[in-house]
Amino acid sequence: MRYFVTGEQQRLSLLNALILMFLGYIALLWVSNGMMYFHHMDLTPSSVIAYYLGSEEQFTTPRSYQGMLEVSHFHLFSMGMLAVTLTHLMLMTEFSNRLKIWLSGLTYISALADEAAGWLVRFAHPLFAYFKIAAFLMLELSLLALLIAVIVSLIRARSQLQQMDIDDMDDMDD
Fold first, then answer.
1. Per-residue CA distances from 142 to 99, 100, 107 (Å)
2. Pairwise CA distance, residues 101 & 107, whole Å
3. Which residues contact 138 (CB under 8 A, 6 or more apart)?
4. Integer Cα distance of 115 and 143 in angstroms
5. What are phi and psi of 60, to 5 degrees?
6. What is the mean pLDDT of the chain?
7. Where residue 147 falls among pLDDT bands split at 50, 70, 90?
8. In the chain, domain spans
9. Residue 147 in contact with residue 26, Cβ under 8 Å?
10. What's this model's pTM, rounded to 2 decimal places?
11. Long-range contacts made by residues 163-170, C-beta under 8 angstroms, separation at least 24?
């Protein structure tokens, strides 16, 4: 009964709905991240090398230091905010601490690796293109795993909340 009197039920339901809407937005961000990657290159080392080092056949120039710095400046902040938000939400789930730590660490490492890989292809050696592809795939997979884990957890919590509402109503009828 306290649950209904204090309004906790409404607050939890609203919070759950807001987080689910946020996760829908992040799912669209995840899709657009993949689309942007595949707009510039594909999963072959030659396309990654051509994107960062330029291509005479495609009449493209190498990525400039300033251009890469501007992209990195924005990405480091935005990916950091995305990672901290999703991993924070993951901490609120019922999954094991081991999984939470593993998935959170993987997300941060893959986000940094994805950002560093472009620099390595451009300024260290073209063979880092393999690293770029692996880092991109790992980032996309870890973000997807975080999204799915939090969404599943929230849907479970929502159904448990609804079941509690039904049980409390049944108790009041008795």
1. 12, 11, 5
2. 10
3. 106, 110, 113, 114
4. 15
5. -115, 150
6. 88
7. very high
8. 30-157
9. yes
10. 0.83
11. 164/3, 164/9, 165/9, 168/1, 168/3, 168/4
Residue 114: phi and psi, rounded to 5, are -60, -40
pLDDT band at 20 (very low <50, low <70, confident <90, very high): confident
Residue 117 tokens, joined: 């890989």
Residue holding tokens 């919590």?
Answer: 157
What are 145's two structure tokens? 């795993």
The set of long-range contacts for 48-51, using a CB threshold of 8 Å and a minimum separation of 24, is 48/121, 48/129, 48/132, 48/133, 49/121, 49/126, 49/129
What lies within 8 Å, CB to CB, of 148 at 6+ separation is: none
Copy the structure tokens of residue 35: 């689309």
pLDDT in tens, 46-85: 999 999 999 888 899 999 999 999 999 999 999 999 999 9
- Helix, strand, coil shares, percent, the chain, to 5: 85, 0, 15
CA 40 to chain centre: 20
Distance CA 56, CA 47 (A): 13
The Cα–Cα gap between 87 and 73 comes to 21
Backbone angles phi, psi at 55, to 5 degrees: -145, 125
Report the candidate in 108, 118, 92 with the shortest Cα–Cα distance to residue 142.
Answer: 108
